[in-house]
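Key result, reporting period 2: structure in, sequence out.
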């Protein structure tokens, strides 16, 4: 069963940068999870910085957000103990 996950900048960069050594792994992992993968603005900022020299890297990152593959609706408040 596919489950949603919280994703950090590293896997996003690996997914979008074909030259990254973990690119194939990232593709496989993203095929196993349910969309959307949850993240936060700081992760998107870091990934955009790391993708700045990758042809259309930042554009591809924004497309993941636009298509709902990655979502910024990351909130841990429901997980906090009362």
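The corresponding designed sequence is given below.
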């Amino acid at each position: 069963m596919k489950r949603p996950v919280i994703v950090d900048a590293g896997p996003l960069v690996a997914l979008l940068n074909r030259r990254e050594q973990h690119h194939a792994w990232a593709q496989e992992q993203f095929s196993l999870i349910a969309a959307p993968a949850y993240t936060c603005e700081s992760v998107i900022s870091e990934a955009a910085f790391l993708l700045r020299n990758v042809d259309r890297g930042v554009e591809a990152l924004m497309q993941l957000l636009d298509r709902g593959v990655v979502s910024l609706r990351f909130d841990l408040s429901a997980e906090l103990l009362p």
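The mean pLDDT is 91. Residues 14 and 71 are 18 Å apart (CA to CA). This case is discussed further under Risks and Mitigation.
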